[in-house]
Amino acid sequence: MNSDEKLRLLRAQMQAEGVDGYVVTGADPHHSEYTAARWETRRWITGFTGSAGIAAVTRSAAALWVDPRYHLQAGKELAGTSWTLFPVSLPGENLVISWLAEQLEPGDTLGCNAWETSAASWEIYREGLNPRGIRTRLTGDLLDLVWQGRPPLPREPVTEVPAAYTGCTRTEKLDRVRSRMDEAGADWFILSSLDDIAWLLNLRGNDVPYNRLFLAYLFAGRERMVLAAGVKGAVKELLLHEEIEVVPYEDAPGRLEQLLSEEPGTVLFDERTTSMGIAGRIGEKNPVIKAADMTASWKAKKNSAELQGMQEAHLQDGAAMTAFLCWLEHSWKEGTWDEWSLGQKLFEFRREREGFIHESFSPIFGFRENGAVVHYSAKQGHAALIDRRGLMIIDSGGQYLGGTTDITRTVLFGDAKPEEIRDYTLVLKGHIKLASQLFPEGTRGMQLDTLARMFLWDAGKQYGHGTGHGVGHMLCVHEGPVSISPKLVDVPVEAGMVCSDEPGIYYEGKYGIRIENLLYAEGAGDWGFGPFLRWQPLTLCPYERRLIDPSLLSGEEKACIDSYHRRVYEALADHITKEEARWLKEKTRPVQ
Amino acid sequence: MNSDEKLRLLRAQMQAEGVDGYVVTGADPHHSEYTAARWETRRWITGFTGSAGIAAVTRSAAALWVDPRYHLQAGKELAGTSWTLFPVSLPGENLVISWLAEQLEPGDTLGCNAWETSAASWEIYREGLNPRGIRTRLTGDLLDLVWQGRPPLPREPVTEVPAAYTGCTRTEKLDRVRSRMDEAGADWFILSSLDDIAWLLNLRGNDVPYNRLFLAYLFAGRERMVLAAGVKGAVKELLLHEEIEVVPYEDAPGRLEQLLSEEPGTVLFDERTTSMGIAGRIGEKNPVIKAADMTASWKAKKNSAELQGMQEAHLQDGAAMTAFLCWLEHSWKEGTWDEWSLGQKLFEFRREREGFIHESFSPIFGFRENGAVVHYSAKQGHAALIDRRGLMIIDSGGQYLGGTTDITRTVLFGDAKPEEIRDYTLVLKGHIKLASQLFPEGTRGMQLDTLARMFLWDAGKQYGHGTGHGVGHMLCVHEGPVSISPKLVDVPVEAGMVCSDEPGIYYEGKYGIRIENLLYAEGAGDWGFGPFLRWQPLTLCPYERRLIDPSLLSGEEKACIDSYHRRVYEALADHITKEEARWLKEKTRPVQ
Description:
The structure is a homodimer.
Chain A: H1 3-17, E1 21-24, H2 41-46, E2 54-58, E3 62-66, H3 71-78, E4 84-87, H4 93-103, E5 109-113, H5 119-129, E6 135-139, E7 159-160, H6 170-184, E8 188-191, H7 194-201, E9 203-204, E10 216-221, E11 225-229, H8 233-241, E12 245-247, H9 252-262, E13 267-269, H10 276-279, E14 288-290, H11 294-300, H12 304-331, H13 339-351, E15 356-359, E16 364-367, E17 390-396, E18 398-400, E19 407-413, H14 418-436, E20 439-440, H15 445-458, E21 468-470, E22 479-484, E23 498-501, E24 504-507, E25 511-514, E26 517-526, E27 531-537, H16 555-572, H17 578-587
Parallel strand pairs in A: 1-5, 3-4, 5-6, 8-13, 11-12, 13-14
Antiparallel strand pairs in A: 1-2, 2-3, 7-9, 8-10, 10-11, 15-18, 16-17, 17-19, 20-27, 21-22, 23-26, 24-25, 26-27
């Protein structure tokens, strides 16, 4: 079906619904960062394959807003269609509203899919359009009758996290929820966020690729606990035994309405993660309290069992990465491998490791100029052949029994150019500066972000992405609420938080460099000025020493690198082959 | 009159007004950081002499909220009174509201002085108390009839800034205001902020000590421009000639009401700087737009004439400081000077300099343990005698014809202790790191703040104040909107902004160290990653080289210090005596 045909069918549905405009955000009903294929509505209707954007359709026009990462790509993908592309700095409801206000007449109606529209967004559309005489109405998913072959709801098995890796029982966590509800004066708490539900219930699934999530809603009352999810068998029995009612996922809105009519009361929920498909069922009689999901900040601070699992996962992943890099150095020949087949090879190394489940995201292998495309993804048959010297960014990770990994190494094929060595060293200096900085409790990510950038800044260079994101425990590789970036996120780094440390540098059309380790924060001491924190590395893998210029490093920086390399060798030596260990010994010898 | 007597008289006034509670914020009608003595109401009623806090009085209770800087001081000053002290982290309306909600009964009325209450605060009181059945009413200043000997309204002369130092005429600036009003769809713009009015009209006064402000309101219409201020004589003639109507300061509310009844329309104002005494006159019929004063961001970016004036002022101030430090080193003997008399001495050195008008703030001379009290102020007869070795913080500044200065040097009497040298060097490393960092446009102060702290953090140390504040041109020594501090202020540093760079370290009961220069930002170039900015120093004065440990400095850091010292010597040598120049030559020789 071509683009115009899809638009024609959607417009027919819009007419049948009596709406003159319709927004397609591509959000899933849980407002997840990554969604199951079923909810890739924006991709299906527009043909744009990027991970972020907003689309809107009226009777006569269709528009897509995308951020700078996707200006080029969206331009190519939308060429020749009747979609109007708006390359903007940040796609948001406000831009869609301005456009709709021009396209629609007073008296017209905008339809918003209740499941794609968060309670917060719904307010914004109403406040932006209603005063101009444009009506707003919640609808079902209008693509349902249009999209032939739409993927069904995923229903993968849900499993329990082994007790050794949770450090906290479901009951203990749910008691904590109830205490917080008491403090807030809430009778009900609605949780829609999938990683929060998985963490809270010590359960994992596979409904969203890479992310170990399962589709679910949780309704916590003062006495009752209701999980709407496709949980079956022994796990379901266990939940019932713990007095957690289980209803089918699709029954969530109806069951919520029922619960609130039986026991009306004050409802606590996060308006950014709760869709109107759920929030719309709360009813006028029940007062609401809107607040960020309490579980988000709890799950960010990993306890010692969770950190232990993360360390085990990183030991396995470090062994896989090291074995891969050793193999690569010995086996690589010009013209034999491309980006995609190397990705498969790394996957094979990971698959052999104990506890490996699957990759934690779609890996990035970017050779030469492809390394400069921050969200590059090589496709089978469309991947660059490694046919000459150059740098390659390898950003990948795994889901293991005990934890989640995410690592980037920049690999050198052939001989290095001086500018590549200089840039790699500058990036590495920022990477180790952030990792080795002692900092007081209360420090937020945007204060630390500068540490990873300052050496590049000194050279008039800059990178356009954040330095670090939170990482889930056996969960999403991107996890809030902490962010080490220039974004104004008022969340301090706390002991137990796991963050990535991944500065980079990118030259369009030439090459990219990025170095990423995961770190966790721990208490460091108090020297009379309040408690301080420090980072500990989780990732275990050597840097590319042929790209390090020791003359640009201070004695302290060399000591940092040597100490990290010593740690890598000591941790991995017994978990890799003798040949690999010999190679690693050489790669981790002191920087001169 | 003692504290209880004052409270008795205020309560009688409250009864006469029919209010059961009354808030005393100590704000002036312009919500200035520094106020004329007339508006030191919080100080008069409570006896607490600190610069920040909120007081509230009911029929039977009286309470004061102060921040950590003042916990100790307020405790001493309120001892033995019937005031209840709440030492909190941040005094705010929310704390006052919680307390009032406990103290007052439904049906009671809280009175807020319309002139002390900003439009923003008034909303907060109403939203916090009315739902609990507590009424809120705007009143006049109830202390007026109670406070015997209350200082009158200041009425100092208003003078014009020489054209050479403005770089932009009044007419050009007012045209810019009108363009912005057009963009915003505003028919009227109300400006209450005193430094914004002074900057916008190229006028200066002396109504608030140190700050070169004059009491005024400005009402800008599409056609009319009305200044309510005590402007007289030639300056008034000039304004009238430029079609700026001048009415007495006291007539402001009446004139505003009149203007809006003659020409109703949309009114633009900043709810944080506009008191209800003014905002309350806008009337229901006129739509309002609340937005930060447009002038605040304009005046922060100094043009080349303003920067030229700042540089001239810093040349004079640097010469005065250098002469003072040279004199101090030669003339100081144990037991002959105290903190206060040294302050007088520095004032004498400044007074001799060309263009000096008066000090830009009450100087801080803190010897030994007094240096650890961040807001210490020595009083005549109660100042520490310099009777033995030790460090002294000297934080002072001047108002000159062309600009405003603010400088801190830490001075050593006698021999240095190793820990003092180590701490001074760590503070200096942060100070020069911030000053020498190249950074991309768009970088905000909180991202740069870390640069000044990271060396102290590495040693487990921290300071409890911001690193840098904006500085006015021939105006307030503290100026918004930029702030180099951990505060989440979403204002990027832009070319032309002047900021202080003043890290420090403080050991309670022992000593304090602070080093402060003023810097201005300028465009540095674009190396393919967007435009970058760099800092240039304004302050010209040597560091205390006896407190520098060269072994803790990198080669780059030594080069930074040497280059700054060379600049200081070259700029000042011709503006000081031969003896002072010889001394300065020695003080600015390369760090070994």
